[in-house]
Design brief:
- This is F-box protein At1g67340.
- It comes from Elaeis guineensis var. tenera (Oil palm).
- By secondary structure, the protein is mainly α.
- Among the domains are: 51 residues, no CATH class; 62 residues, no CATH class.
- The chain has a two-stranded antiparallel ribbon with strand order 1-2.
- α11 crosses α12, α12 packs antiparallel against α13 and α14 packs antiparallel against α15.
- The N and C termini lie far apart (112 Å).
């Protein structure tokens, strides 16, 4: 508009830019709120002020972190988590952490303790989460889910395949569990036993430092079970197993125990010398088996027995699969390693052939005690690697 002084009023924005100008400004404003992450997904900031860094509100630096850095941090946290609640709390923090917390790299690094599942809390969602971790390449999840499927859900093929997948990744516990399956012919008939394969798997697990595998291999060498007999070499493996077990107890956070606390179990080595220290902590998979079959009362099924070692939890998959103590005949074990542990923890004080003496007149019991091997029921308590009576 022309004025008397010759100046003009400015035109309204609608007349200067028109409809296209307003659309362009709106498009630029929205473009400033959208950022690209490393995976190519589009993610909006929490507010325009946070995106522009103005408006009197501090910018959200967490939203500014690239997703690959957040995934790397979450991987470190999941690998060092000491309980399942630590990982769950991360997933419940916010929507972004919930999405990135389920990234395959994070799940593949999850520790065994973070994957611990209680039998009373078992559900389809827990099964699905373990399956997701196993698919991401987590060998601990493969082993735990494999043990649950093989023994609890009675899905032998799938469970054995998962344990084999973990064993291929040099998972020591999976190698030892497959060795126990081979020794007993679990999931098949008695003719499916493969002692040489069991010894080979035990040797591989022992090389990786698995204590039970060292003890099992030592007894196999001493007895000539699936391998040529070598008493001296077998004793060396038993001593090495006890040494590793002692080192694990002394380096754990539970040592030294509180003076007022009365331990319920003893270390299998130090109990020979009258020392009371906390018993080794069982693997989450074995703890699940103990809780699963303990809650059912009837055990593994009609006519099927559980391993008498209280922290093992393995059940029989067919009748008379496990071997009994050759002295008392009242307990049975899935392996010589479990027998050795239970002998030191509990059975040494309970094993007695008195019932056999009363029923059989003493002759048969005396013959079995004599045939029990180098470490019979009356063996010296301080014999390194001793495990009490044999198994039949």
């Amino acid at each position: 508009m022309q004025t008397r002084s010759g100046s003009r009023y400015t035109k309204p924005p609608s007349e200067v830019d028109g409809w296209e100008g307003r659309k362009e400004r709106e498009r630029k404003r929205r473009r400033g709120q959208v950022r690209e992450d490393f995976s190519g997904k589009r993610r909006r900031c929490s507010s325009p002020a946070a995106a522009e860094g103005g408006g009197g509100q501090k910018p959200d630096f967490f939203d500014g972190l690239p997703d690959d850095i957040v995934v790397c941090i979450l991987s470190k946290l999941s690998s060092s988590a000491t309980s399942a609640s630590h990982l769950i709390n991360i997933l419940l923090t916010c929507k972004r952490l919930n999405g990135l917390g389920l990234h395959p790299l994070v799940l593949s690094k999850a520790s065994a303790k973070s994957l611990t599942v209680r039998a009373k809390n078992w559900s389809e969602s827990a099964h699905r989460f373990l399956k997701q971790c196993a698919d991401a390449g987590n060998f601990e999840a493969c082993y735990i889910l494999g043990m649950i499927r093989f023994y609890c859900l009675q899905n032998r093929g799938s469970g054995a395949a998962l344990m084999a997948r973990a064993a291929i990744g040099s998972h020591a516990a999976a190698l030892y569990s497959l060795a126990v399956v081979q020794f007993n012919g679990s999931g098949g008939s008695k003719n499916d036993k493969d002692l040489r394969a069991g010894v080979a798997l035990c040797a591989r697990a022992a090389f990786l430092g698995h204590v039970d595998a060292l003890r099992e291999l030592g007894h196999c060498l001493q007895d000539g079970y699936g391998v040529r007999r070598n008493v001296a070499e077998g004793r060396r493996f038993l001593v090495q197993a006890n040494a590793r077990e002692l080192a694990a107890v002394l380096s754990s956070a539970r040592w030294p125990p509180a003076e007022a606390a009365v331990p319920t179990g003893c270390c299998p080595l130090l109990s020979d010398f009258g020392w009371s220290v906390p018993a080794p902590e069982p693997h989450p998979a074995n703890r699940f088996l103990v809780e699963w079959f303990g809650a059912r009362g009837a055990g593994a099924g009609e006519g099927l027995r559980l391993c008498s070692h209280g922290e093992c939890g393995r059940p029989e998959t067919r009748r008379h699969e496990f071997r009994r103590c050759s002295v008392c005949g009242t307990v049975n074990y899935c392996s010589r390693a479990c027998q050795a542990l239970d002998w030191k923890l509990a059975h040494k004080a309970k094993c007695t052939p008195m019932d056999r003496w009363l029923l059989d007149g003493g002759a048969a019991a005396a013959a079995e005690v004599a045939a029990a091997g180098e470490y019979g029921a009356a063996a010296p308590a301080a014999a390194v690697g001793g495990d009490g009576g044999g198994m039949e």
